[in-house]
């Protein structure tokens, strides 16, 4: 596992505002993500953080908003790089890919918020770039989504469909317990 990196995506306080984001699934995502992070750190394996820096001033993830800060339990340690991004993928407009390759890392475990946006996009791009990706399904979460015609799709359904669309083609989808047991 020494050449497997943990990629933590957008574990930011701004996602804790239900009035802004709406209904969220998986209230255990943070606890599961922290468990995975603790396991990685205990083994001395590489950890990388992606942080969404929205360009929209009203966003809870804008750098001037307190919500841009990392959630408790996910603050990077000194040797853990942080990649600020203003698009969905942590691999666009950052040095993440180059840094992973420079360290000889070819396998990734990814988790974070939101399953169907930044986690999904980063995972798809990682697979397209030749990385072997695994998603920690129970260490991800998302929100209800809607269409212009008024239909609303519950967060759990959105989460499950996003994972199903990644599974097998772009990534292995596993639980934190399965990843730790590997």
Uncertain residue ranges: none
Helix content: 25-40%
Q: What portion of residues belong to β-strands?
A: 15-25%
Number of helices: 6
* Mean model confidence by pLDDT: 96
Helix/strand class: alpha/beta
Coarse shape: globular
- Main sheet overview: 6 strands, parallel
Read across the widest sheet, the strand sequence of neighbours is 3-2-1-4-5-8
**Terminal residue distance:** 9 Å
The H/E string reads EHHEEHEHEEEHEH
Overall strand count: 8
| Radius of gyration, in angstroms, nearest whole number | 15 Å
Walk me through what this model shows.
This protein has 182 residues and is α/β, with parallel strands linked by helices. The chain is built from six helices and eight strands, in the order βααββαβαβββαβα. It has helices at residues 18-21, 29-43, 96-102, 115-128, 155-166, 176-181; strands at residues 4-9, 47-52, 82-85, 107-113, 132-141, 145-146, 152-153, 172-174. Strands 3-2-1-4-5-8 form a six-stranded parallel beta sheet, with helices on both faces. Strands 6-7 form a two-stranded antiparallel ribbon. The longest helix has 15 residues, at 29-43. It is globular.
């Amino acid at each position: 596992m020494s050449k497997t990196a943990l990629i933590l995506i957008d574990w930011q306080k701004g996602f804790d505002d239900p009035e802004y984001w709406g209904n969220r699934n998986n209230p255990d995502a943070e606890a599961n993500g922290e468990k995975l992070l603790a396991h990685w750190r205990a083994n001395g394996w590489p950890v990388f953080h992606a942080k969404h820096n929205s360009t929209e001033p009203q966003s809870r993830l804008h750098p001037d908003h307190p919500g841009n800060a990392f959630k408790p339990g996910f603050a990077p340690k000194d040797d853990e790089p942080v990649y600020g991004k203003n698009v969905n993928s942590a691999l666009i407009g950052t040095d993440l890919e180059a840094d992973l390759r420079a360290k000889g890392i070819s396998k990734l475990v990814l988790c974070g918020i939101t399953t169907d946006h930044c986690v999904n996009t980063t995972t798809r791009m990682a697979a397209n770039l030749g990385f072997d990706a695994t998603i920690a399904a129970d260490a991800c979460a998302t929100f209800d989504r809607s269409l212009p015609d008024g239909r609303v799709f519950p967060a759990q359904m959105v989460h499950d469909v996003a994972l199903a669309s990644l599974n097998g083609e772009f990534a292995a989808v596993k639980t934190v317990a399965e990843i730790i047991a590997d």
